[in-house]
Amino acid sequence: MCGKVWLVGAGPGDAGLITVKGKALLELADVVIYDALIQLELLVQIPEKTKKIHVGKRAGNHSATQEEINQIILEEALKGKKVVRLKGGDPFVFGRGGEELELLLEHNIPFEIVPGITSAVSVLAYAGIPVTHREFTSSFHVITGHTSKGTKKNVDYPSLAKLGGTLIFLMGISSMEEICNRLIQEGMPSDTPAAMLEQGTTAKQRKVISTLKNLKRDCDQIGAKTPAIIVVGQVCKLANQLEWVEKLPLGDVQVIVTREKTKASKLSKKLLEQGAHVIELPAIETASMEDDSNFQDAIKEIMEQKTVRWIVLTSPTGVEMFFSLLKKEKIDLRRFLSDTLRFAVSGTATAAALERYGIYADLMPKKFSGKELGRAFEMSVDRNEKLYLFRSELADEELPNYLMDRGFFCKEVPIYRTVSRMNLEWVESVWDGIEKQEIDYVAFTSASTVRGFVQAMGERDFSIVSAVCIGEKTAACAREYGMNVWISEEATMDSMVEMMIKMKQRLD
Ligand code: SAH
Q: Which residues touch 30 (CB under 8 Å, ≥6 apart)?
């Protein structure tokens, strides 16, 4: 059976700028063939099981030639695979999308095209430059600045200089001087507003707003490099006034979120709201215990008792695992619950998880910590009432020790394990991003996420990692590996985000 190819535009860089259709296709593809412009932020969203083929330039390696790329796409399709050919921006805007389809046509391979948001418009928007504006221009023109090789036609500067529209040069960074000089030669005033926009829509976007005469000089000062766009026209004047990315609290910040997949999105959304670019790279996974006998015994004991006894849950994961085990044992909730069975939780998140099962906790400390929960028991619970702690195998002994020291019967029942598990495909790209300071922070929400991250990264000098940690224990673990550690004031996602905002303000 012959496969199919989707030529998909990935958008200009910000992972949120891929289309809904493009994102859905990334999830169903067997193979994704991508090039250098695709950001890690988006790449990590491709399922782990999907085959990924990088055909762009990477440090040290040469990029595949166009013929090679065409061949790779064809081969995968002939194997019967669902192939997504992922290209930066829109696949047809200087993207050679057409060339890639020709070979498929010859072989009767079915294809679809999913347009993308082109950098030619969106990079301007992220720099506060509207591509058109009624007061200034009635057209915009997208031009390749890459005239020396590859293109057949020369740029028609005399016409461009007369158009009065916004001129957008892609691939023009190395011929910037020529572009500006030619436009001036052909009659454009040398003080015409002009801009250079580098790595637009990413956390590291930079811009230079200048004039035709001075653009090259001003760009040289900051060492502008590709990928970048040159914009010429009156609309560039609006860049300062309409600047918006720079005003976002975390607009230039890229963060790795190491939480478990199911939980990562909460932190990611909060970061996104503040403008941050998020790379979700879960470093841990919840796994069930190898055998459930501890759980079975404890449940049996609990159900046989008639006096008051407590089920103590200390994390939302604990709640989920507890109920999934009850289900696995086919225990009917009507038989299990009774008015002498009490529930205690360690904090609001756990309470909320429990409420989803229709159970409102009988005990919850004001502050989230093992000790506080212990204190709450100490203050209000009779020593005859038995306590059963259903939690992670790795949970520390603070709470049970505290309770037992105060004369409680307290039974620990491990019901899940947290195992280190990170997708190793991106390890080198992640480290590269950290070294180049394109990745600013790594967010750790537990010591196990630190361990998972370190395990995946292997032997490195972690002193270049800025770790934002949720609490002392997480921080202590990160420090052990030599990371630069910041601790959020409270053990909440909001507080972690606030910490990052504060760190950034300090840097600015
Ligand atoms: N098909 C792509 C363009 C491919 S040509 C699109 O529609 O966006 C590659 C050129 O696009 C680069 O040399 C640069 O000029 C421009 N470009 C792509 N992404 C960019 C970005 N994030 N910031 C600035 N320029 C970018």
A: 3, 50, 51, 76, 81, 82, 83
